[in-house]
């Protein structure tokens, strides 16, 4: 009989214990939530520390929403989905299976029977399955797998892979697609989509139908499936040229034993379409519509609804300037539910697809994993001061209630303030200020978020301010120009001008936080990742306001990064081409002002980062060394743009706190253990 997990191995851990970091990063955490359409069963995915692998591993829990859930035994998997009858679909990399015996090396799709607990492999591909979706009625699977361009079947793809392996070949030839060195196949293999029925547990799955290749660009892994697999919608990214990238949606319908050709979903001119959601009957589509920006035109985002069976061009629904993040339909197809950033939170909203009537269903917090079932909206809710936990809210507007979670509450040591001030142009700007429990003259740490289209509105296991407040610091989380949740005009203030309003907003919010009676504003440090790292680097060249700087994956030479980044299209839209004159890039570049830096700097970067390539960090490091600056470089060979492994995140914090001890407090530098 499965056990009911009610305690955490680190349940005695106190976040206020400043000398302890490891238990925090090994704490169990809620990862994902699913609910059956009748609201009879809920599935929670949590992460649990495994000392043998020094990693957090998925654990699954099922039961009735609101009641104590039961741990699913012996299921080592990821990316689970819950079927209407309680069966579980998931991705696994098994040690033995028929597909592995045939030469398969990646993840395959498995079905776990709710009745017997038996696992059955239902779909596989030689290069592994990247992602998948299941129809609302639980009958049809759509999944994505990379395949060689010369292959017309999974069997041919396997033979090509085995041949390359036998010949010791690993070269990649690009002929128009983006270079993706971090991809297992080098990014050269297009993703193909396959469809198959969901078999009964412990039965053999039918062979899949291989759908036609992407009609434009490559599939992104965003897709939706209607009941019975009658209608399929898939997203693509199309690098039309070195200076133009678009995101589109295509639809196909069942035709006999197969499917018809991909047809484009018509959208508003000059817009990307993404995040598709289908009604269960496949008649209507809702998705995000994003204005394709240019250096002189900032982006905008809205909700697009199309009647697929009527051949209409669709329409934009008025949602009061909200920028949708996730989109889903009610089971009846009469309401759209979306999440959107709003002044430091991400609530859930209900929208009528005909009238555009908008209702806010939740208040504070950041909401994700939204499911609508049985007259309720289910979701995970977190806050800057609390990790994700399951909740449900009445679709008619009743307040959300907390649901049972297997993860014990993690007490936060500190106080949270919403601080606001006025920007140079009169715009109200704000951020969160995290303070220690005990009032004191706390040194100030300013953490600038990445993105830049982002907001400090959720719990973060990576950038967690409460580990700093436990050490007596105050931590400011500013939302400067370009932050989301404040309207398009707020984004426009910093569009194509990162060194303007965003830079100034951070400094003004810093002074606002420093004016708090419990903050010692004279003793301050600034840090941030990616875009936040860019502003951190720029601040280091322009002002002596801060006594220490920590830049993680921060952009140093924006012209170099704009030309080599895996998401170069973002820079092209905002700044134009870095080739030629590149006047906009020169105006924003921190690198020419390296000699003006007069503050200790800690650079941190991952070896597999292709958003801000490692070469930029090495350039930064070499510039500082050549100029004799006070700098250190913490390198993570196995990490990417972000640091995700708990042990590495712990080591990052240990190094940062040791660096701050020396740079801000004048203590002797002590190299953290293990470095």
UniProtKB/TrEMBL annotation:
Write the record's keywords in alphabetical order, separated by commas: Hydrolase
Cite the InterPro entries for this sequence. Answer: 6-blade_b-propeller_TolB-like, AB_hydrolase_fold, Peptidase_S9_cat
Using the record's annotation, list all stretches that form the Peptidase S9 prolyl oligopeptidase catalytic domain.
459-665
Q: Which SUPFAM superfamilies match?
A: alpha/beta-Hydrolases, DPP6 N-terminal domain-like
One Pfam family in the UniProt entry = Peptidase_S9
> What name does the UniProt record give this protein?
S9 family peptidase
Q: Give the source lineage, highest ranks first.
A: Bacteria, Bacillati, Actinomycetota, Actinomycetes, Micromonosporales
